[in-house]
Amino acid sequence: MFTREGRKNHEERQESPKLEGSFYDFVSEDYQLESSFPADRSVVRKLTKYVGQGGGVSISFDQKHLGERIQYDPDSDTLTIQGIPPNLREQLKRDTNLAPENTNEDDPQSPPF
Fold first, then answer.
1. pTM over 0.85
2. How far is CA 15 from CA 7, 8, 12, in A?
3. pLDDT tens across 71-109, in order?
4. S-S: 25 plus which of 4, 8, 21, 57, CB 3.0-4.6 Å?
């Protein structure tokens, strides 16, 4: 608890500093920028991402991988991915081993599904 005098001192310390102008005033200043400028293609390429989903499939990748790790064939409408992420590889290996055509139904060690 503060005394009346203590509360007054506490409130004086808690006041925010008074700033001149506003953020809008700051950004509205004339910086004499060109109306356009050339984009650095290598930087834009790093920032571009391909994203798509539908039919239970979702995929996204950076543009830098197109033509390198990811190949697109417009004739067959396919993507070929080389060097899949390790966590996806492990999931695929695990689930491929559980697929019904790869399990031995007579083996009591086989999972029941």
1. no
2. 12, 11, 6
3. 999 999 999 999 989 999 999 999 888 766 544 455 554
4. 21
